[in-house]
Structures are given as C-alpha cells and as structure tokens.
Amino acid sequence: MLQALGSGGIKPCVSSFGGDQFKETSARERKWRSSFFNWFYFVINIGSLVASTVVVGVQESKGYGIGFGIPTIFFAVAIVAFIIGALFKLYIRIPPEGSPFTRIVRVLKGALVNRKQPLPQPSELYEPPAGTYSHLAFTMAHTTRMRALDKAAIRGDQPRPVSRTEVEETKAFLGIMPLFLCICIYQMTYDPIFTLLPYPGDVMDRSMGNLQIPASSISFANTFGVLFTVVFYDLVVVPITNKIGRPISMTFRIGLGFFVQMLALISAALIEMARYKMVRQTGLIDRFLAAGPDADPLDPQFTQPMSIWVQFVPYFLVGVGEVFTNIGTMELFYTQVSEGMRSLGTSFYLLTMAVGTYLASALNIIVASASPVDLWVADNPLFGHYDWYFWLNAGILAGGLVIYALVARTYTEKPVTNVDKDPFNRESRLHSELANVSRVWPSVSSNSRMSELRQRSKASIVSSTGSGMSGAGRAGLAQLHGGAKPGTMPSTIAEHFSKDVRDVAQV
What we know:
This protein is an all-alpha fold and 507 residues long. It folds into three domains: 21-93, no CATH class; 176-410, MFS general substrate transporter like domains (Growth Hormone, Chain: A), CATH 1.20.1250.20; 422-506. It has helices spanning 2-19, 27-62, 64-87, 100-113, 164-175, 177-188, 191-196, 198-201, 220-243, 250-281, 284-290, 312-335, 342-370, 386-410, 423-440, 447-463, 471-481, 491-506; strands at 207-208, 211-212. Strands 1-2 form a two-stranded antiparallel sheet. Helix 12 crosses helix 13 and helix 15 (423-440) runs antiparallel to helix 18 (491-506). The longest helix is centred in the N-terminal third of the chain and has 36 residues, at 27-62. The protein is globular, with a radius of gyration of 30 Å. It starts with a helix and ends with a helix. 29% of the residues are buried.
C-alpha cells in the first residue's frame, strides 16, 4: 500500500515537473522538451535494468536486507539532491491553479445552463483582466472545436462567470479522451507477451554455454529494445526528419507504436505455432502422457529442441513499440492540455496502463469461460494454444489501430500561444537578420562591424520600455539606414530589418 501511495504521488508529477523546465513559447526549448521525455523514459529503463540484475543478484547472494537497503540509500540520495536543487532555486515551479476537475465541471454546467443561447462570437466570450480573482496564470487562444462549450463563457449574472480560457482548457482535455480510449487498447495487448511467453520458455532450450538461464531473464530484450530505440530515434531519426522538414508528429508516433506492438504479437504467435508443431513432431505429448499423472512438464526429458533466444524478437519489438507509443502518449497528454492540467494529463497516461491491465484480465476471463478447459491458455506449455491468444490480441490491436487512425486524423493539436512574446526567439531572429544583411551589404560584413551592431541591437532589447526604443537601438538603426551610402542596401531589407528591431524593442 505504501508503495502504491508513493508511486501514485510521484509518477504523475515527475515527468510533468521535468517538462515544466522548458519554455512553451520557445521553439528550441519545445524540441528540447520532446527530447527530455525520450531520455526520461531511457533512465527509467536503466534503473529497471540495474534493479533486475545488480540488485536482484545482491539479494540472492547477500540477503533481502541488503537488497532492500541499496534502493533505500539511492532514494535518500535522490531526495537530498532534489532538495538542494530547490534550495538553490534551480527549478521552474509552476504555481498550482486549483482543482482542474472543478473548472471542468463549471464549464460543463455553464454550457448546460446556456444551452438555449445562440453561439457567441469569439469576441463576446468572457475573459477577465489580469490581476482579478478569477484570472488564471495562463491564457489559451480560442478554437472552433466543440463550439457548444463556448456558451459557458457567456457573461451573465453569476458572481464568477466562466472564462474563455477555462472553456478552452476543458476543450483540450475532452479532446484527448478519444485518444485515451484507443491507447487503452494498446496497453491491453501489452501484458500477454510478459505473462504467457515465460511458460513455453520453461520447456525450451535455455542453455547458454554451460549455464541454464531462467526463462524470464530473456525479457531483458524488452529493456534493450527501449534503450536502443531511444538513442537511435532521438539522435538519428529526429534530426533527419527535422532537417528534411517532415518532423514526426506525436499522433503518428503513437500509431507507429501500435503497429510495432502488433508485429510483436504476430511474431510471438508464429513462434508458438512453430513450437507446437515441433512438440507434435517429436512425440513429446505422447511421452508426457505415458509418464503418468505425476509427470512434471518442466522435467529436462520434456525439453523442446527450440532455443529460447527466438523469444528475443517479440520482447525486443515490445520495447521498440513502447518508445513510440508510451513516450508519445506521455508527451501528448502533457503538451495538449492546459498549463493547469499537465500533472492530470500525465496521470491519464498512467491510467491507460491501469485500464489496459483490467481489460486484459477481463479478456482472459472471457476466453477461459467461452472455451473448454486449457484449450487456449494452459498451465502445461505442452498443451493449449498460446498462439491463438496472441493472434486474438493482434487482431484486437489491429482494430484499435484502425480506430486510432480515424481519431488521430481528426484530432487538432493545441495551438502554441504567445510564441512571439519570447525575447530569446526574437533576438535569435534579429541576429539571423543581421547575418542576412551582411551578405547583401558588404559594409557591415566585417566582424567588428557586425559585433557593434549586435551589441547596439541587443541594448535596444534590454533598455526599451513600452513601444519606445533605447538610444543605442535608434543609433543602430540610424547607421543601418543613414550611415550607408545611397543604394548600397536594398530598401526592402532595410524596412524588414527595421520592423524586426522595433518588434524586439516592444517585447
């Protein structure tokens, strides 16, 4: 119970807290944030790998006291490191906005009360000014989806009317619900690989040199698949797709994980079909039945001449699918809700796993009750048809992929607001404009000249207030416009450059 309470407290918050360290308005930091989710999942699997190898080995050799003591020490070190970072104010902390469910209920109630009102125009939607009691720390742009909810923001006689931002916040949350249901289907088909494959693995050839490896240990291929795919995807695939102007969207990434997971189930089914064929051809069933009712299927005499290493493929593919679907879902549920719902969004990512597990259990009960005893999932791996169960899950996932594709095709990502208010973006654009000017205006191509103009333009950013501009900024523009000889700088470039500097100064 304590572990459940602790995990429930940290898991929805740690990934969203990490995402909060990146500025939403900066295109560069949004890319860094996407990369963060990849490496966040990477280190989780590193920890899992160390726990299942090093810590388990210590437990077996030194006892469970030391085995439990090791992660306890690491937890203590992590807590101290986290507190030190907080004391030195190294983190960006987003203030809480209250219960998001309360705001959702207010919006739904307001839309229901005003259901007979005509649809309001976007300009008619209520949005309180900054500093009032009902003003959230963030704003969201109006969207045209779920227009019926806009009626909640009609200003009436209520003491605290619903704001446009609260309406858009609810729209964003409800918009990911169809995706949530589809991803639950993916999570439902995740368990069979890990719950069923160890059974046939126990009667397969588990030799590795002079050692006999446990059947469950081959599941390390899953972790290996995750680690390999994260590195390859983040360091190779993402830079290439961004360079050619075709970045991979979050919805496409999730769908790709569906497809890879389906391949994992198909590969597991094919392996089981080949194994059952080998069981029949080698007469293992007859030998087992002849051994009497007390025969143990795990007895070495019933070992099948098929290497357990063939199971590496489905385990590895499951890891690859995780990188696409699980990380993509984590990022999507974080970025596509409002700033006040990000922890809730990431908790819904974890909820897909819980719902998927319950659905898998329900499917198992249905299959067991609808078929003769041990026909599909038998305790004795020499009997049954695990392959049928894998094919069933692959078919369910294929249907889920079709539904997901239809839902994802109609899904509209939440727009990024206030992107032009990021002075770092605009400063970078300004320096880019200076570089462009230097190519067509040789008189500023020297390093000293460019450095001087950059310093003066930067001063205009720092010193400007309101719509005014610092003297250094005006001097920089004066030199750009008046200091050059007539005709040496095209007027269109001068006008564009001047406008950009003015815009930066206004920021």
